[in-house]
Amino acid sequence: MARGKNRLRFSKLYTWAGCLRPQSPLERQQSMSVGGPGFSRVVFCNNSAKHLQKPYRYKSNYVSTTKYNVVTFLPKALFEQFRRVANMYFLLAAILALTPVSPYSAASLIAPLVFVVGVSMCKEALEDWRRFIQDNEINNRKVKIHVGEGKFEKREWKKVKVGDIVKVEKDSFFPADLLMLSSGFPDGVCYVETMNLDGETNLKLKKSLERTVELDEDHEFATFEGKVRCEDPNSSLYTFIGNLEYHEEVLPVGPQQILLRDSKLRNTPFIYGVVIFSGHETKVMQNATDPPSKRSRIERKMDKIIYLLFLVLLFISVVGSIAFAVRTKFNMPDWWYLRPRDTDMYYDPNQAFLSGLLHLITAMILYGYLIPISLYVSIEVVKVLQARFINNDIQMYYPETDQPARARTSNLNEELGQIDTILSDKTGTLTCNQMEFIKCSIAGTAYGRGVTEVERATARRLGKDPRVLGDASIVEEGERSLGGDGSDVEMRPMSAKPHVKGFNLKDERLQDGHWMDQPNAEEIRMFLRILAVCHTAIPEVDEATGTITYEAESPDEASFVVAARELGFEFLRRNQSSVIVKEPGPNRVPVEREYNILNLLEFNSTRKRMSVVVRDESGQILLMCKGADSIIYDRLGRNGKQYWNATKAHLAKYGDAGLRTLALSYRKLEESEYEQWNATFTKAKTTIGPDRDELLDKASDMVEKDLILVGATAVEDKLQKGVPECIDRLAQAGLKIWVLTGDKQETAINIGFACSLLRQGMHQIIVGLETPEMRAIEENGDKNQIAKAARESITLQLATGNHQINLDTDDDNPHALIIDGKSLMYALEDGLKHELLNLATQCASVICCRVSPKQKAMITRLVKEGTGKATLGIGDGANDVGMIQEADIGVGISGVEGMQAVMASDFSIAQFRFLERLLIVHGHWCYKRIALMIVYFFYKNITFGLTLFYYEAFTTFSGQTAYNDWYTSLFNVFFTSLPVIALGVFEQDVSSRVCLQFPALYQQGPRNMFFTWSRILGWMANGVYSSLVAFFFTTAAVEIEAYRKDGQLAGIEELGAAMYTCVVWVVNVQVAMALSYFTWIQHVFIWGSIALWYVFLVAYGAINPTQSTTAYKVFVETLVDSPMYWFITILIPVVCVLPYAVYQAYQRMFHPMDHHLIQEIHYLQKHITDPDMYKQERTKAVEKTHQGVSSRVRASLSMELTKQRFYGDGHLQSTGEKQDSMPRHVDNRLESPLINGSLDKTPRNNFSYKV
């Protein structure tokens, strides 16, 4: 049985353009294009079987975000592995090892390669398996599907097909893109939360077509048929063009009837819809990008080093082969002991060229130790262990949700230390998705002593205790408002109440009904009445508890209604034409009053205000208006500006505290005036044509005038804990922060102020298309003309912005770029994107609002490719996935918007503030560890590998190796592997606390100071020097001493073992010299590796000589009794590391790097014995920045000092502030040489202190 039609029709309360506005000419033109190119999709409603046949074979609803599948894993994973140059080289070597020219057995080369590639592929498979599990959870969600005869059954999402009728119930996600047919409300409206799509927490109103509203019961779909012709799958979230053919009618369908996958049904019992797009054809998946294959900058540069070493290897192999061919040609006939007349092609004097060519292959395999295959395995091990440290960092654990930090891939650890630009989502990333009414100004008096996160951060920066701000603020405001010493302010004890979501105002003058005792009680009454009446919220009563909750179009509006309720004006219910509010009566007894809603003038980004015309119980007609302060001021009457100056001062203070503000006003209307205006408004409202909106705006302006200002509200868009401090620290570390959000421009700007990305005095360059000229062109409906005009407008605005920045050379007045998604459609085109990037990189802050997920990814790609520097994308919703995947590093926040962002990310954290530690501590450590580990790895392999070349030259390039086969096989496995792993896992140039105290240290990563070519080549040169010393000192030593009792000189056995011993000592002592931080683990690994060599030499030498060959008892019978052996074991390591020690001493003395100074300060205990000096050095350890709390404080203090110079000391006294209230250390901090630019002049030494 159909429901009765006498229930409230919620859509009648509003004038949403999408519900009631007639089609514009452009929309009519677009709707006629259905069936043409780009509009060829046909959907048979309630008949999904037709879509299994050509040409309607649409994609299934199964969604996969994995990088691999069963078919593609092997080829794609192998491709990933053999993109590494070293792996390609060793693959070639392993193939050649199967031929007779190889100096080593095939197994000794194939086994390491299989192990290295296999370990890496297993790690990739494990990470992708986790994504597969998450996909399965989503694909196996249940939804009700019409199975015929009016019956609905629950099926998995993956079984949903195009054309199916689905029934989605309250608080459920939509499984695909649906055409809404009807809802649980009689007039076919529903409320949708699109947080996963655009990050907005406010609810969107959707409305079905009038012809399908009556399909409100299951059985009515037994005979339902229809056909939808619409646009093809595309990524535009905010547009849709199509027609529904139903009962021989063609009904136009727009975005107002489309429910997108991953949005949620809220405050509506259920909806019926037909599936239009499914699976990867849905708009949210069209905005997604394929999981990228990311490689760090260090790893890509390591490939170039491999190329260089390969050229070195090729060069020495060619040199050796030429020498071998020449000696074979001319000297071989004289070497009778080699039987020159009985040779094969490998050393045939008559085929010297062929012998030289075969020797080239042998030499390239023999010298292969120059290219360390074990480097990749070691790096994999180190990165996995580094990831474990990140995962187990208790400082990044969030107990409220039991969420630790997670390194979801370990391939990019070092990239964390090289980030230049952070691109961040707003909602759920910087904020908590929560608005709180915290302060207000009524009749020129400020109320509320709550403290915002921005105020707390500013107080800490100024050296004040944030806990005393609340009490101080209310006394100060009381003194100013009453004009005395505050003695008239009665400070009543506040009753302890549980925290109410959306309300955090603390002021005993207003709470518990005490506002009625205030001298301005009538103004307060009107202020609270406006909050309770002027809105579009809907109350919901919990039948179990009787409590009322409010669902509003925006979180701000909900907080206003909650604030009114907490202060005595409770919005109870709404009916077809009125709202009922319980408010204090004449005797303070609560009474219910009804306000008849006559008209609603809705809020939009152009009007920036909302008004409601009501008639109270006495018959008085009132217009209540709330909006931006600049808009309200222009509409105040001559008698309505009584409190403007005081309110304006309060608004400035609220804005500086990062609060979102609105001004509240009203006016009384005479009956005749209202009747005359209402006729005009009704005529405009019923107009059909392109000028309808303009007529409505003009009609609204006619009544929204001569207003009386009552006060202003201040709402905190609740930032996550620690966000201002985190942004401040990241800015001090030299990182640039951009905000990319789907929110409105005003909301984005407010958040920019709240988290100190924007501040007072910062010039805002706003690029947009919301101009009267553009609106006039859009109304004409010519798409080509619209695109041309928009492109010209954006080009002009970008050029003007660049010109403005070039003219403004004052560094104390930075610029901020604010641009919306509509403008980005044109600004991101090939002809303009570089102009956009040039403008954006010159601005201190960049905020992009109303951007789609795809635009977020495009902006990220532009910054990454345009600047050539590392980018980090951070977000928490499905709308951030593209940005996260496109950035060099993707960070997902495991918040309230689901796990899509986390599953697509490289790292996940629970709160934005943990990004500070992830980058400045772990990023800094990982970068330096990996950089030092790689250059050291090449050093030790060059030291070891070149001794083979020298011995080859010593033996006429005969192909004979100096070392036993097992020596060469175990060099990188046992005797040098553990120390380098310990270096990569445990090394710390400074502690985590010092990293945070000296954030400028982070810039060593973005500037790549530890992996430059000069540093790489320096370590290589050190390796060449060490190999020369090890070889020639050893050969010289063994020539002058007998090594056996019968007087025999040293042979290849003694020479190889002695030289190998020296090499093991040299490379392990060198890693000990390179370390800055020792634990017992490093000691065990370094000295234990050396001891292990001796144990191995004894044990291996005791084996049967057929297995141990040249190592048979070489230590116990010859080396252990040789004084020269022990002498060179000491001498050669000392001589080898001496140049490194001298260089380090010279550098620390005359050209110290930042961490050298900090290490010496702590070693000499200067942070204890001379705290003032230490504090001064800390203040210098920040990058000059215009973002963050520090910049805000510096600008505020600079402004105060400027005012003092102009107005004298009396200015500070007149504002009630003490001249000596500024801590002395703040002055030092603001005037530090580093902030004034010395860092750019001396990039290798940020601090003035020298030991």
From TrEMBL:
UniProt: Mg(2+) binding residues: 425, 427, 876, 880
Keyword Transmembrane belongs to the record: yes
Residues reported in the UniProt entry to bind ATP: 425-427, 557, 603, 626, 660, 741-743, 850, 856, 879-880
E.C. number: 7.6.2.1
Keywords in alphabetical order: ATP-binding, Magnesium, Membrane, Metal-binding, Nucleotide-binding, Translocase, Transmembrane, Transmembrane helix
Highest taxon, organism lineage: Eukaryota
Segments forming domain P-type ATPase C-terminal: 902-1152
Record field: transmembrane: 305-326, 357-379, 930-951, 966-986, 1016-1037, 1057-1077, 1084-1103, 1123-1143
Compartment(s) of residence: Membrane
Any one Gene Ontology cellular component term annotated for this protein: plasma membrane
Region of interest (Disordered), ranges: 1230-1251
Cofactor: Mg(2+)
MF terms in GO: ATP binding; ATP hydrolysis activity; ATPase-coupled intramembrane lipid transporter activity; magnesium ion binding
Residues forming the catalytic site: 425 (4-aspartylphosphate intermediate)
Catalytic activity as recorded in UniProt: ATP + H2O + phospholipidSide 1 = ADP + phosphate + phospholipidSide 2
Chief localisation class: membrane
Annotated family: Belongs to the cation transport ATPase (P-type) (TC 3.A.3) family. Type IV subfamily.
Name of the protein: Phospholipid-transporting ATPase
Organism listed in the record: Physcomitrium patens
Lineage: Eukaryota, Viridiplantae, Streptophyta, Embryophyta, Bryophyta
